[in-house]
């Protein structure tokens, strides 16, 4: 059978001028029938090519290569062996683009490969179409896919998960580029490091306090890391307090939120998440110091809320490029409503609550404003430029005002008197009180 195929193609090939492009294309069709085995490394690409060719045949178009230009009208290509039939077919770049955007089978290719193919489709696939005849053959497709896949090794689980919730009609080149920004190289180091630091600090003080740990107590308020309003002159406390938690429930809740939401954001926006987190921490302590000037503050909630609400800023600035934005917005609004409802309930039913609701609110505002400023904007429009400048100026004004009020507030006895005693004395007092 293979010999019949080769002889048929070879016989017709001799009737064409030696320098004609038709003969060159036909020679390419007459593949080496003695080497039809698909290698293991080639199987995935070949399967994708088969799906592509089948798509072309089931949805005919005037862009498809017309074999009657070359072969006799009575020649039946379906008689060719399976691999020869598929490998010898030719695909127009715009038909390839159709297949990439519309079919589920295209999702089996790495996202970066689909991006590169779509980019080249918009430019007639000049790189993939190595011999410049206007059509893509299997060897060109194989070489292009293999090259891009090898050059861009990375995590695909997150991207495949995102594609799973993205409507097929919305899987445009711009949105695939956005998904490609989700990378584990470099890994989300900041969120991992801050999480390890908080766990390590928690374990250290569990041992140091020599007290059984419950869900929401005790807290090592003697620690030089906690925000103590009587030691506001120790400026580092405005930043270090997230390392201290009051009980294991307090710690686990914060870690769970920052690892889920923070890591997702850091995968796309890298170092910018650290800026948002720290902005939320600083804003939280400044606001807490002004709203409840006699209360100690601990816990990572300021930074956690900043990361949480940065998702809203990210959504606003990248609305047209985000997958299922209305679902994301709904989830964020539900969380905001629950937070606000709990804060109102806790404040009204327990006027002496030690929960730093103002730190939460300030962290959330910082996350939203700084998120708009520092997070990547995939496609900036004019109104977004105005929003960027407004957010930047508003954040700087609020933080500067908070710093100045904490330092120079002209209200006598608003803040408690400074505690100038050694930190070791604070620990001794705490231990003595808990022994009673």
Please write out the topology.
Blueprint: H1 2-13, H2 21-29, H3 43-58, H4 82-87, H5 93-102, H6 111-121, H7 138-151, H8 157-165, H9 173-180, H10 189-209, H11 237-240, H12 248-269, H13 272-291, H14 301-317, H15 325-349, H16 357-374, H17 382-408, H18 423-435
Helix pairs in contact: 5-6, 6-7, 6-9, 10-12, 12-14, 13-14, 13-16, 13-17, 14-15, 14-16, 16-17
Give structural notes.
The chain has 436 residues and is mostly helical. It is 60% helix and 0% strand. The model is unreliable at 1-6, 31-35, 125-132 and 151-155 (pLDDT under 50). Helix 14 (301-317) runs antiparallel to helix 15, helix 14 (301-317) packs parallel to helix 16 and helix 16 runs antiparallel to helix 17 (382-408). The chain has helices at 2-13, 21-29, 43-58, 82-87, 93-102, 111-121, 138-151, 157-165, 173-180, 189-209, 237-240, 248-269, 272-291, 301-317, 325-349, 357-374, 382-408, 423-435. The N and C termini lie far apart (97 Å). The longest helix has 27 residues, at 382-408. The chain has 18 helices and no strands.
Helices and strands, in order, run as HHHHHHHHHHHHHHHHHH
In one word, what is the shape? elongated
For the termini, the CA-CA separation is 97 Å
Low-confidence stretches: 1-6, 31-35, 125-132, 151-155
Radius of gyration, Cα only, in angstroms? 32 Å
Estimated share of beta-strand residues: under 5%
Oligomer: single chain
SS field, number of helical segments: 18
The structure class reads: mainly alpha
């Amino acid at each position: 059978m293979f010999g019949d195929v080769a002889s048929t193609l070879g016989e017709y090939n001799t009737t064409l001028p030696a320098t004609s492009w038709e003969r060159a294309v036909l020679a390419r069709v007459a593949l080496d029938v003695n080497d039809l085995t698909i290698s293991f490394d080639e199987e995935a690409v070949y399967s994708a090519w088969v799906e592509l060719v089948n798509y072309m045949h089931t949805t005919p178009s005037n862009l498809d290569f017309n074999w009657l230009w070359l072969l006799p009208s009575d020649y039946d290509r379906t008689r060719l062996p399976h691999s020869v039939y598929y490998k010898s077919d030719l695909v127009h770049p715009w038909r390839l683009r159709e297949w990439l955007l519309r079919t589920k089978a295209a999702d089996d290719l790495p996202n970066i490969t689909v991006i590169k193919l779509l980019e080249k489709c918009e430019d007639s696939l000049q790189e993939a179409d190595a011999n410049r005849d206007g059509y893509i053959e299997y060897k060109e497709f194989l070489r292009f896919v293999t090259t891009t896949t090898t050059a861009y090794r990375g995590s695909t689980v997150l991207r495949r998960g995102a594609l799973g919730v993205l409507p097929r009609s919305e899987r445009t080149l711009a949105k695939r580029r956005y998904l490609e920004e989700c990378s584990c190289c470099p890994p989300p180091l900041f969120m991992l490091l801050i999480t390890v630091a908080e766990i390590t600090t928690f374990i250290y003080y569990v041992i140091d306090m020599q007290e059984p740990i419950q869900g929401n107590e005790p807290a090592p308020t003697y620690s030089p890391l906690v925000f103590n309003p009587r030691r506001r002159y120790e400026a580092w406390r405005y930043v270090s307090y997230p390392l201290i938690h009051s009980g294991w429930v307090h710690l686990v809740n914060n870690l769970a939120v920052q690892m889920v939401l923070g890591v997702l954001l850091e995968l796309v926006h890298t170092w910018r998440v650290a800026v948002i987190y720290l902005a939320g921490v600083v804003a939280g302590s400044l606001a807490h110091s002004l709203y409840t000037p006699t209360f100690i503050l601990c816990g990572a909630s300021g930074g956690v809320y900043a990361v949480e609400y940065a998702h809203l800023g990210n959504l606003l600035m990248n609305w047209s490029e985000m997958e299922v934005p209305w679902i994301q917005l709904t989830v964020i609004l539900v969380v905001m409503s629950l937070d606000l409802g709990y804060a109102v309930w806790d404040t009204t039913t327990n006027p002496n609550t030690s929960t730093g609701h103002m730190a939460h609110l300030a962290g959330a505002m910082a996350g939203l404003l700084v998120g708009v400023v520092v997070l990547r904007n995939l496609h900036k429009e004019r109104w977004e430029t105005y929003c960027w400048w407004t957010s930047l100026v508003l954040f700087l004004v609020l933080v500067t005002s908070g710093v100045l009020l904490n330092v120079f507030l002209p209200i006598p006895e608003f803040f408690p008197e400074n505690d100038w005693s050694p930190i070791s004395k604070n620990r001794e007092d705490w231990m003595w009180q808990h022994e009673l």
